Amino acid sequence: MDRHIRFDVLHNFRDLGGYMTTDGHQVRPGRLYRTDSLGKLTEATPDWSRFLSLGIRTVIDLRYPWEIEHRGRIPDHPSFTYHNLSIEHRPYNQATLTSDVAPGPYLAARYLEVAQDGTQEIRTALELVAKAAESDTPLVFHCAKGKDRTGLLAALILGLLGVPEPTIIEDFTLTELAAPAFLTEWKALNDGNTPTWPGFNKTPPEVMSLFLSSLTTEYGGMEGYVSKALSLDPGPLSTTLRGGLLERQAE
Length: 251
Fold this sequence. Notes:
Blueprint: E1 14-15, E2 25-27, E3 32-35, H1 46-53, E4 58-61, H2 65-71, E5 81-84, H3 103-117, H4 119-135, E6 139-142, H5 149-161, H6 165-173, H7 179-189, H8 205-219, H9 222-228, H10 234-245, E7 246-248
Parallel strand pairs: 3-6, 4-5, 4-6
Antiparallel strand pairs: 1-3, 2-7
Helix pairs in contact: 3-8, 4-10, 5-6, 6-8, 8-9
């Protein structure tokens, strides 16, 4: 299925529905979305109407407060609640990295930093996803490009739902389909300059594969991370998520 939902100003809005789990279920379509910054949306536009038509009731913005101040946030609307949970605590500038920096090891190490620094925010984000699952209401989460911070949270959610690792990695790589649009956007905001890092906007599978391996090394796996780092019981959390977000595969 084509996971990308078309918007004029959003390049990476995707439905996580349809992914299969190891026990024959699939993620329900129209319940869980990931995207690039919703701060690009403007009221009284076709994009705004399209967004509202999805019936989303919870918006999680994973960006820094200073990003929101400079780039804006989604307009207020009575149909949804907005939560800013800045899961990254150590900023880094991918555009200025040099060509000798390998994307796989570098980004995987940054993701582990985020997973270890942002435990309070990640815990709250997972609790909000579980709450949305219980209430059977759609939820969307995003950062700037829907790539790194969003990719980390998506991996945790999909893993807790029982989606196999190769599928989690595949979902991560889909952001690269939006790389040309993101490059054009970045140049427009930076006087037409080009990023120095060849890995900019790239999502090679090695990044997510190494990050998931690091969770196994550090915590014994995703459930160990949820238990030891987030102080959440992964069993009930997974049960809640699965109960609200999974359905039997159609025959």
